[in-house]
Amino acid sequence: MTLKAEFEAQDAKRANVTERVRECAAFTIPWVLPEENTKGTDTILQPYQSLGSSGIENLVGKLVGSLFPTGTPWWSTVPSAQARTSDLSPEDMEAFKATLLARDLLIESKLDDTNYRIAQRAVLENVMVAGNSLAFLTRDYMLKTFRFDQYVQRRAGGRLSWVIASEQVDVTSLPDETIAAAALDREKLMAGEPADRIQSLYTKAEWQRGGSWVITQEINEHQVKTSEEPVSPFFSVGYRELAGEDYSRGFVEARLGDLRSFNGLAGAILDLTIAAARLVPVYDPAKGWTTADLTSPNGQPRAGRVDGSTPNGIGFLQSNKHNDISVAMTYSQMIEKRLAKAMLLESSAQPTGERVTAAQIMRIARELEGALGGVYTHIAEEIQKPFLNRVIWQMERDKLLVPLPANAKAHELSILTGIEALRRQAELDRLLLAMQVLGPIPGAMQRIKFELLADRILRLLGINTPELIKTPEELEAELEKQRQAGLDTAASEQAIKSIGAIAENSAA
């Protein structure tokens, strides 16, 4: 079976899922999954309200700010536990840390030249609305996202088994060997219409038992490329996975009832308001009024019957639907309040400015973890490490990184945001609370090993402790130096006293 046939068969099986995702997009961000066969020049039907889109944009902004903060490293390569317990000398360990730091700086510099933060925003947008997202890291380190109807996948036990992505490419921009493998004629394509040069490229990544991935590409129902790689270039992220389902459920789907009701009420309130705002004058010809009386210029007198100071026989059509509008408004405000709370629109934790501090990142992470019901840590785990592992593998393949020792288990990635940050912050809070509780108790702090406590607190704060914490040898050397200085000072004072006594005796 060709990849095209397999893609179409799997896409037909999940038709109900696609419609469900399309409905979720319709009430929030319609372009996440527009109607089928919608072109870029077509008008996309917009909902009656913008609360859904505002809420999703707010959540996505907080997620991007906490997972990939600007001006603050979000990962660090550190020696593994095996390396820390090895027989490496302190000098060799410091040299190894310097090598790892150089790698991190090279990776950070490479990523800053790409679009990964903007692309990760699109990834998270799809996760929140559609419940699923797929991204692909190209050979030039650009992150490309796929719409929900552009890929099919299979998950087993929470692990991605395979994925097939479809995209449109201009085949004349491909290498000659690729065009030949696709059984296409470059000269004929160049002479034809530009639309004829657009072909569907299908890419399949399938996990193997050994842990590697087989990558296969197909154009014109001909296989044009295949390779086996240890790290997948695809990143599949789900919001909330359910047992036995290949596609996750999304944040919007869990609140689809409120969004559907709020959108309907917004449309009804709009219609009622328009009806109430209509100005339709009515006059009675028997009372001497004409159409010209109602359209006459300002200040021009007209003849007609008047009772007191009010014209008799002139009135306006009224809908008398004010009570209906008030009922709809009250109910819509209740729904709006629930949605705003779920989407953190009432929160003030979103930082402003170019640089985000670690405390702000931690506050956002805690807020998201509570608002998303524990899904935040799952999203962070599926986005950060797979993406970083693929970048590192490609840079090592392209020989852009400082070579590492032969022992592949000598280092490990430490994520400084997301779930790892929450764990470190929780441990730090416990240590600080213990100090506050034990501080007032007489003699309690004397049982604490202050050196170890200070070392652990500094590490949890992300401070490199070897440069700050004195070793026992350094402490002993300082004490010995202070004792020697004290002895020298005492000897000098005694010498001065002795010389003074000798001088006094001589004078006598």
Task: Write structural notes for this entry.
The chain is of the alpha+beta class. Helices cover 49% and strands 15% of the residues. It has helices at residues 3-13, 15-26, 51-67, 81-84, 90-112, 116-130, 176-181, 186-191, 251-254, 256-277, 291-294, 322-342, 358-371, 375-397, 418-438, 450-460, 472-507; strands at residues 75-79, 132-137, 143-146, 151-156, 159-170, 198-207, 213-219, 222-229, 234-238, 281-283, 306-307, 310-311, 314-316, 411-415. The strands form 5 sheets. A 5-stranded antiparallel sheet has the order 4-5-6-7-8. A 3-stranded antiparallel sheet has the order 3-2-9, covered by helices on one side. The protein has a two-stranded antiparallel sheet with strand order 1-14. Strand 11 (306-307) and strand 12 (310-311) form a beta hairpin. The longest helix has 36 residues, at 472-507. It is flat. It starts with a helix and ends with a helix. The model has no long low-confidence stretch (mean pLDDT 82).
End-to-end distance: 121 Å
Beta-strand content estimate: 15-25%
Low-confidence stretches: none
Please report the total strand number as a whole number.
14
